[in-house]
Design brief:
about 190 residues; three-stranded antiparallel sheet; 3 helices; alpha+beta; about 20% strand
Length: about 190
């Protein structure tokens, strides 16, 4: 008997436009024009915070239950997990880009120093005795460059050899320069061999 009454009440609710309150959302089932062929659920509130049905009846609403006030802890944890996963891919690429940039700066500095050593040797008819002599003669205006790998301007390794001058006697001086680092580059070669 109770089952029959429940089915009867369910059918009467579906067939008549009544106010339906479901959980935290208060919705009104409105009759929809037959020409459109569908029904819609839409909340309507009056100024006093009461739900109003199409036939003018009012039901009490106890506050803005339909407003969204924030994220749940689960949503925040999922968003944080996605950000951390993306960061775990980006961080190694970032450090690799920094290392490539340092190697590019080292190559450019070595090229510049070697060019200036050659210019000094041609101009003065003797090689420079030190890198500081290139600065004093005006070939390096900003001072000795900082080795990007060792991060020091004092750790450059220089090759000193006897170079024959135009007069016929040999004078010792710098003929080449290398990085003072013992580390290996990304291509597997030692920085000191560049």
């Amino acid at each position: 008997m109770e089952l029959g009454m429940l089915i009867g009440k369910a059918l009467s609710v579906v067939s008549s436009p009544l106010s339906v309150v479901t959980g935290p959302l208060s919705l009104v089932l409105r009759p929809w024009p037959a020409s459109l062929g569908r029904c819609s659920l839409r909340p309507r509130t009056s100024d006093e915070g009461q739900m109003t049905t199409d036939n003018g009846q009012q039901t009490t609403d106890h506050g803005p239950r339909t407003s969204f006030r924030g994220f749940t802890l689960l949503e925040l944890m999922i968003a944080l997990s996605v950000v951390l996963i993306l960061a775990s891919f980006a961080i190694p690429a970032y450090y690799l880009a920094i290392q490539r940039a340092r190697e590019a700066v080292l190559r450019q500095d070595l090229y510049t120093l070697r060019s200036l050593i050659d210019e000094f040797t041609v101009d003065k008819q003797r090689p420079p005795a030190s890198l500081q002599e290139l600065v004093e003669a005006g070939y390096l205006r900003g001072g000795i460059p900082i080795d990007p790998i060792t991060r020091s301007s004092e750790r450059w390794q220089v090759d000193i050899e006897d170079v024959a001058s135009g007069v016929g006697d040999a004078q010792p001086g710098i003929v080449d320069v290398h990085s003072g680092s013992d580390d290996t580059a990304l291509d597997g070669t030692a920085y000191s061999s560049w």
